[in-house]
């Protein structure tokens, strides 16, 4: 298959054009067509010589994701798209409407190999990582199909972003480039289940994005039972990496904690969480777990969730309960892809 030209950063495209014997300004023109004007074909790039358009056509593709399914929440207008990739695979992206603008949640891999016990995305394992071009087109596709401007991006869909590091980094470079969407990485959050070496690597890039860490447990025993990655990177190592991230970037880390009834939501566990995060400048995002058909994870009562939050706040933590969007459209990551695959007998 031809390479998706949208996967190239501007410096990479310029280098390619140099090799093709083309002047540097041509690379910039093409980049602006792709990421500024969102051109979907080379033929329409009217300020390029015909031969160059032909040469590009021969060498590259412009991957445009198709919309296989679209669900709109009747409750809050959240939209979820099942997007078709050029090789027939599919991923999900979600548009969330907030008072201050639209944020899109994108997938970074087809499937996932992290194995979290409560998550639908990992059930079929990892198929492959997404290319930078596919990730950027998730954002563009959202604007194309929903007709809305996107002002923020969260990497919290299917997949583990730090398990597809190089491609995610190129995607972020393209997303924030002045000649493209020019989206400030201050409006981007990246969520990870806790790959310690990659967290350190990311800190070194000094991108200014928000790091979200999926904690989901206050101790290793509880965490290992629901997140296999905890066996590779135990909590003391993960916490040290998070502290280093804050020291190096000045950006406070956000912790996600999905409350699962009877597994990680006891008052004792709330106290342990306070002790674990004591003194850290951070934020805890409590998520009532989304129940996944294949998973034995139940959601507790609203009172239990509020009690847990109250204990964290009393213990000195900055903790909020995530407002749920799209709860009527199975917006929990990985659910739509699985449902569709099941219906189609894939
Ligand atoms: N792999 C990354 C990002 C994708 S998942 C990560 O692990 O962070 C985005 C968030 O949704 C993570 O915090 C993940 O743990 C959480 N999540 C997955 N399945 C869930 C479910 N059924 N209910 C609530 N949160 C879930």
Structural overview:
The chain is α/β, with parallel strands linked by helices. The chain is 37% helix and 20% strand. It contains twelve helices and 14 strands. The strands form three sheets. Strands 3-4-5-6-9-10-11-12-13-14 form a ten-stranded mixed beta sheet. It has a two-stranded parallel ribbon with strand order 1-2. The chain is globular, with a radius of gyration of 21 Å. The protein starts with a strand and ends with a helix. The site of S-adenosyl-L-homocysteine has 18 residues, from β10 and β12. Residues 114, 116, 118-119, 156, 160, 191-193, 214, 256, 258, 287, 289-290, 292, 332-333 line the site of S-adenosyl-L-homocysteine.
Q: How would the blueprint of this fold be written?
A:
Blueprint: E1 3-4, H1 10-19, H2 24-36, H3 50-59, E2 60-61, E3 66-72, E4 79-84, E5 90-98, E6 101-105, E7 109-111, E8 126-129, H4 132-146, E9 152-155, H5 165-175, E10 188-192, H6 196-205, E11 210-214, H7 220-226, H8 229-232, H9 235-249, E12 253-259, H10 267-277, E13 282-288, H11 302-314, E14 319-321, H12 335-343
Parallel strand pairs: 1-2, 6-9, 9-10, 10-11, 11-12, 12-13, 13-14
Antiparallel strand pairs: 3-4, 4-5, 5-6, 7-8
Bound molecules: S-adenosyl-L-homocysteine (SAH).
Q: Spatial order of the strands in the main sheet?
A: 3-4-5-6-9-10-11-12-13-14
H/E series: EHHHEEEEEEEHEHEHEHHHEHEHEH
Radius of gyration, in Å, reads 21 Å
- Supply the number of helical segments: 12
Number-wise, the strands total 14
Mean pLDDT: 94
Q: Uncertain segments of ≥5 residues (pLDDT<50)?
A: none
**Helix content, binned percent:** 25-40%
- Oligomerization state of this entry? single chain
Bound molecules: S-adenosyl-L-homocysteine
Straight-line distance between termini: 23 Å
What is the molecular shape? Answer: globular
